[in-house]
Amino acid sequence: MHAILALALLFAGSPMSMLRKSNEEIRTILKQQKGETAATPEQKQKIKQIVNGFLDYEELAKRSLAGEWDKLSGAQRTEFVHVFRDLIERNYVKQLRSNVNYQIDYKDEQVDGTEATVHSIVKAERKGRKADTTVDYKLAEKGGGKWAVYDVITDDVSLLRNYRSEFGRIIKRDGFPTLLAKMKKKLAETTE
Predict the structure, then answer these.
(1) How far apart are CA 130 and CA 1, in angstroms?
(2) What is the pTM of this model?
(3) Bridge-partner residues for 153, per DSSP?
(4) Is 1:154 a contact under the CB 8 Å cutoff?
(5) CA distance 99 to 154
(6) Residue 161: phi, psi to the nearest 5?
(7) Residue 146 CB partners (closer than 8 Å, separation 6+)
(8) What is the pLDDT tens value at each position of the chain, 192 positions in all?
(9) Residue whose C-alpha is closest to residue 44's, from 99, 116, 112, 92
(10) Residue 18 burial by CB count (10 A; 0-12/13-18/19+): exposed, middle or buried?
(11) 46 close to 178: Cβ distance less than 8 angstroms
(12) N or C: which end of the chain has fewer CB within 10 A?
């Protein structure tokens, strides 16, 4: 469910208006595939482009690795962000297929300098059951009035905090190279 909830966008405007625009673009694509068992390669590519426009993979990676980020070389950072992005993209597209019936009600936004939070409630129907989920999007300004999401908090569970905990545990036990190897293995096993 995290993937469907990570709807934001890196364009000029208010954080809330960017989230709405991104959500509508993705919903339009999903409506086109309704009734099909899977999105077409073209639809998947469009969704990935939207996701790449709103999610700040580098910021999410940096904050997920915390102090470990500063220890990495430029090449290691680039490779990590690339693998991380590919995993998130695949998971996002995969989860969207099973979550077509949803609506996001945006409640408010709080902007504090270069940071913003948008509060929302996702109303979804899955297998005939309705559920409301609170979702808070954490965004950072990227300059020129552009915003990008670096965390999604779903019912008080932070995506960023989960990654930080998992990555930290693996790095502490086995080191960064093992974390990257595990991520690459998972990516190789993941089919779209």
Answers:
(1) 14
(2) 0.81
(3) 136, 158
(4) yes
(5) 15
(6) -60, -40
(7) 10, 11, 12
(8) 443 434 433 344 789 988 888 888 887 887 776 555 566 788 888 888 888 888 899 999 999 999 999 999 999 999 999 999 998 888 777 766 555 577 889 999 999 999 999 999 988 877 778 888 899 999 999 887 788 999 999 999 999 999 999 999 999 999 999 999 999 999 898 654
(9) 92
(10) buried
(11) no
(12) C
Q: Which two tokens stand for residue 144?
A: 């020129």
Neighbours of 46 (CB within 10 A): 17
- Residue 40's CB is within 10 A of a number of other CB atoms, namely 12
Domains in the chain, please, with CATH? 2-189 (3.10.450.710)
The torsion region of residue 35 among left (phi > 0), alpha (psi -120 to 50) and beta comes to left
Locate the DSSP E strands across the chain. Answer: 102-112, 115-126, 129-143, 146-154, 157-158
List the structure tokens of 10.
């890196």
Decide: 148 and 55 in contact? Cβ < 8 Å: yes
Tokens at 186, concatenated? 């998972």
103: tokens are: 């609506």
